Amino acid sequence: MNENSFNQKGIALITVILIVVVLVAVVIELNRLSRADIYDAVNISDGIRLSYIAKSGVYAAAAILGNSPNDYDTLRDDWAKMESISLQSGALFNNGYFIAHMEDETGKIPINKLVSGSEENEEVKAMLIRLLLQPEFGLTRSQAEEIVASIKDWIDADDEPTPGGAESSFYAALDTPHQAKNAPMDCIEELLMIKGITKELFNGTKDRPPLAQLVTVDSDGRININTAPKLVLRSLSDTVTPEMADEMDEYRRKEGNDLSDAQWYKQVPGMDAVSIPPDLITVKGSYFKIVSTGKMNDMNKTVTTVVQKADNKSVRVVKWRQD
């Protein structure tokens, strides 16, 4: 065998090896891509299933709300126990379930009602200031009044700042400039854009309650005394003490106590002389927030909705957000 023949065979062998290496690399890459496509398809499929599981929680909660036997809404009703009820949802799905929670938005302070037409609503203003002055928030009176003035300026139609408040001229000078909305809020998260409202105040901390759970943008203006958080109860009147709010909460949770009339609070020991403006409170919920999370394996998907309950107990969705 001459040297040229040997070199040609060597080159051919190297070429074959290179081709095999390339083919192996191509096969490995195709296999990886195929598996990635399969995983993507599975994830998409699971995501769709999770969405439907979460939606099922919303519809189940709305059905329970619409089937309430009373003409008034309380924390003793089934809708208020939705989280416990939803634990049974695992029997409805293969390897999945939902956890749903419902809140009566009518039990919160209606911040959009701070401005009525072109006038400031003094009752709502007083409630907000009383709320922010609760010791749990740790705010001074001037801080509380400035926050309320800033909320008012955000909502009202003009661009004239209220003393202590803020309009577009203030927000335009910020590192992230924006304008005052000068219209009612569409979502509670808008509070984070308003002067004086920090993330800690909005979301709460270990030592402070979250303001976001005590105020609402979805309300007809009156507060459901049957479902209002205790901090809101304490904000209804200067004469409602923390101890009274605790006793009111105990009274309304006890089976057998009649909550069909908003004046039931006068039956609570020591509160017969307390006066809450009748046009400020109600015993009916008109707007409810439903948060439903679909869970499957290690994945979850959450749907947040606001529904409106009419006097005929029909329930309709007014807001829908899927995370």
Tell me what you see in this structure.
α3 (122-132) crosses α4 (141-155). With 323 residues, this protein is an alpha/beta fold. The protein has eight helices and ten strands. It has two domains: 3-105 and 287-322, 2-Layer Sandwich (Pantoate--beta-alanine Ligase, Chain: A,domain 2); 114-212, Ribonucleotide Reductase Protein R1, domain 1, CATH 1.10.40.60. The N and C termini lie far apart (74 Å).
The top level CATH class name of the largest domain: Alpha Beta
SSE arrangement, N to C: HHEEEEHHHHEEHHEEEE
- Report the sheet-strand fraction: 15-25%
Using the 3D structure, state the CATH architecture of the largest domain.
2-Layer Sandwich
Uncertain runs: 20-30, 36-42
Question: How many distinct helices?
Answer: 8
For the sheet with most strands, the description reads: 4 strands, antiparallel
Mean pLDDT: 88
Q: How many structurally independent domains?
A: 2
Strand order of the largest sheet: 1-8-9-10
